[in-house]
């Protein structure tokens, strides 16, 4: 991973990085595999070991289920899910609801009492104590009674174990083996996180707790658990993902080594450890996983795709956002809305705006700016500390203790009880995530990896003021001299990182104003750093997002990733497959405070344009824009497009080696026209600074023909010309790299290097200047995208009393239905900024008012609402309405017509139907589709229709027997026609039909259906 | 249309005799680059025609053909060429002819420039080879060196090839460099002594100095030959001789009766351009700086809310009837207290030159082109009528 502790770039200064050809703004955090940058997307999952109770659908036999996904934190044991369920009504003669337990490897559910008995509990009373902590709780006792009755037949542990064993995979085994089998299941597979081995007492306590939670839910004392609560979620970042994969691969290496050594032993050979340990397994498989994103150790396991993605390098913000992306691997097609919805607990952790539209909406998320993912702490250390704090371990807990003491949970699993939890809380509060639930008598501690946390200011509860003081801020401000840092704030207890669970137990003031009211309604313990921190990378670029309709922010968050700008400062050295760089990027006049940290000012992706909102000439209807031709002439939104193509000397089958050279037409077959090669230099590679067009060869490459092919070719030639001896044998085949036919440009950089397998490799970067033209796509920062509808001559544009002409004229109809008020406020503030020469602050949730901006505008001699009297540039007269004109930051989006245009007169056809092929890349035609056809039909243009559908598409001539109406044999060379069936050689007509039609007829004939064309002479 | 400005069309056809009798011109501001004058007695479409001609049809010289011999800077060739094209060429376009597609470049239709960086002299002074191979890459953290348009030098067509042709004359302008100045920085063309003499002569064609073209690091080199040709702003903005040319109608602000007290204060505050002032003694509102008014209409809007019970009926929907009966005025905004009008025949016309022409000369040029157009139109019409008459 780049910029990690093991990276060459780690800890280098800006200057050192520059000298290495690296961009000092690159954040790292991705991998480079096979020359492409790969991001490991954080994977969301449910947390382990915690007990969740869910209600089941009313059709299910069980009304409630308590679940626990139990995973041992060390080793490579797979996760085991234990379930405790309660039936809707009575079963097997029991009148009440019964609690059942599902065990791993056991086919049917076992009554709770039997599992308890198998775990070594003797009496019903003991069982009762495991489940119900308050002896006076009669309601719950009644509910549990029938479940305990179910176990009354099975009176001792062995019977219980046998009962379980019978339902396992031990068909026909002896009773002893059945008992041993059941015991093993309980010891090794049931709730493995408690322990593997003789941990039955502790497991009984835990099973009791699960049942307690289940019953409490049934009785309505606690709510059903919320699956979408973000406190239950854990995020696997690159670290845990790679750890998991490595663990599996290492096991595979060990397993393979053992197998090979075993075989060596068996065959009596000398043991060779170097041969047995396959050193490449781990490296190769890790590489494979990172390169493809298929996250699995062996090919048999289920694939988890899309874990690794190619880093988005279109804009700097897009790269940053990509590195903070999350994916929830839950059912994509599932139309379940809940997991996609924004959850209350996601506040400050996950960006509310930045998510894709459509299929992955709400499943792919982005971290909020200050969100941090916890790195795990080893459980053993924490446990030891807890024991030092007089915690009673779970396996030593007695029934008397439990009623009065507090249960301690570590990462979801119950580890012990403590008599004085308050002490524990005060001692541990600053060290780890701790939740003290007094009502439940539970103390929950979280130290595992993957919890989402965020920093908050700590409030001194006595004075109701922030612990952080001006002096700290001052020190932080000149960090260069004081060496003060944010992590120091955390260490000194001024700022605290809280995870979702702990966040729910604190009182957070929104701002200082709120905090001042502390004590009136609530006593605050924490304060937000800034409410705008709820947004992620892309949404933080939007000015005044709190004044927009929320989907508009989502649209902009997606669109900001398509903007052109400066994605990195070292783009001149990089060989990106595709890159856009804006000629004159500007930092926005209307900024947010976050932009400074996102480097949006240093690496911007847009231009401040003078925008008038007006209907002017009609060329900006339906989300199109009128742009000033003069502004475009002067460089507005000009950009370069870099495209890199690669060619490698590959080794083909039978040791045939491709060679990069200038193909010699004397010995090479399959060559293009001679002038296509004219730009190649003597080494077969095109030079730098060469103007290239579609069809030009960039890299000449030939491959030897197979021995047989060469012979066949030679024979063919001999037959054709009889001059084989003269021309020599053509022994090579041309497989040069050719420029795409619709592209043009200048070769910008040529890189010759050696590929992985020691092959010669050439990379060629082609540069194209993209001047804005009609059809190119632009967008403001408010989800207001549009294409250029007209490049209006400068003199036609309207002008104001100062002679200012707009760069862009946007249509007013784009505003009311979309309610992008922030677009208008931005224009107004932008105008003030342009006039006064300062940056405007448009951070979310700041008290900037339109009135204040208006007052500032008046100070500069402009109308406070941004209205201006414009003169029509064509008539010269003042316009009838005042026009809203201001300065908006506009982005040029990739999607330029130059790269989309495609048309043809004639060209390639499909093999089967002989209709023109589809697609720009194949030089295909433009389809007259179903609806286009309707237009001609409705108009009655039958000739046009026939021309489009037949003449110009797949016209074909068949010869039809006039007697039987079937296709006759036609020998055009001899001009003889015959229908054998009718013995007819004279009455045959030539008919023009589409080839597809002829095909259909023949297919029908193959199915013994005779489609007959009954012809009639229409005369003249 | 309740809240928008009310803009009426001026009435009557254009009357040449009347117009020529009435036209008055008053100069307001006059510098080399910018000229503003008041014009009375014409209408907006006429002035607009001139404005449009100024922007799009007055020819000027601009760099059009760029040959890049060497460019090892980070800025790519197309980018650099585009920037060079936008540099104003300070040569009088009237002395040149348009160069058509197959015309041979000559001193009649082309100005040749050359940009070399580092300059030849500098290389010689540093005692390094002219190829600059040993200049090497930067060894330490060094700041980039700006390359300005000052490094672009005229390269006249040599005397032998264009013997006896006239030398283009640069416009004599205030901020033009003296011969010595050019000499001090003009070390570009050393190979030919004669050429250097030409370059330092007052007849030399120049380029607007002080424009940043690109930035280079030590070791990076530029050698670019350029040809400037005559062109029109309608083809590319680089040929437009004006930064902008525009006009505004002269505003007239009238108070309806005496305004004083809080209303007066509110009105004064409402105006972004501070048109109104209070009379010191009486506190009565007066229109002090009428010409500043930008016709935003804020003064009419601000107080409208306070006039309760009155509807918009007093507002003028057209400029036809006029409360104060001022000639050639159309009311744009009107409220209970104030009326804001446009004087339809009095304009402030501003021309901001880019540098090829003096701003005042530009107006004359525009008029000439307009005249030519009129003459052409007349001739075509007459030609037509003649042909029709002959047919009859």
From TrEMBL, chain A:
Annotated RNA polymerase beta subunit protrusion domain residues: 1-283
InterPro entries for the chain: DNA-dir_RNA_pol_su2, DNA-dir_RNAP_su2_dom, DNA-dir_RNAP_su2_hyb_sf, RNA_pol_bsu_CS, RNA_pol_bsu_protrusion, RNA_pol_Rpb2_2, RNA_pol_Rpb2_2_sf, RNA_pol_Rpb2_3
Gene Ontology CC terms, in alphabetical order: DNA-directed RNA polymerase complex
CDD domains: RNA_pol_B_RPB2 (cd00653)
Matches recorded under Gene3D superfamilies: 2.40.50.150, 3.90.1070.20, DNA-directed RNA polymerase, subunit 2, domain 6, RNA polymerase alpha subunit dimerisation domain, RNA polymerase Rpb2, domain 2
Domain RNA polymerase Rpb2: 92-236, 309-373, 408-460, 486-531, 924-1015
Keyword Cell inner membrane on entry: no
Record keywords, A-Z: DNA-directed RNA polymerase, Metal-binding, Nucleotidyltransferase, Transcription, Transferase, Zinc
EC number: 2.7.7.6
Molecular functions (GO terms): DNA binding; DNA-directed RNA polymerase activity; metal ion binding; ribonucleoside binding
Parts forming coiled coils: none
Ranges of residues in domain DNA-directed RNA polymerase subunit 2 hybrid-binding: 538-922
Catalytic activity as recorded in UniProt: RNA(n) + a ribonucleoside 5'-triphosphate = RNA(n+1) + diphosphate
GO-annotated biological processes: DNA-templated transcription
Pfam families: RNA_pol_Rpb2_1, RNA_pol_Rpb2_2, RNA_pol_Rpb2_3, RNA_pol_Rpb2_4, RNA_pol_Rpb2_5, RNA_pol_Rpb2_6, RNA_pol_Rpb2_7
Family: Belongs to the RNA polymerase beta chain family.
Function: DNA-dependent RNA polymerase catalyzes the transcription of DNA into RNA using the four ribonucleoside triphosphates as substrates.
Name of the featured protein: DNA-directed RNA polymerase subunit beta
UniProtKB/TrEMBL annotation, chain B:
GO biological process: DNA-templated transcription
Key words, A-Z: DNA-directed RNA polymerase, Transcription
GO-annotated molecular function: DNA binding; DNA-directed RNA polymerase activity; protein dimerization activity
Keyword Cytoplasm: no
Listed PROSITE patterns: RNA_POL_D_30KD
Domain DNA-directed RNA polymerase RpoA/D/Rpb3-type: 34-380
Cellular-component GO terms for this entry: RNA polymerase I complex; RNA polymerase III complex
Name this protein carries in UniProt: DNA-directed RNA polymerases I and III subunit RPAC1
Species annotation: Cyanidiococcus yangmingshanensis
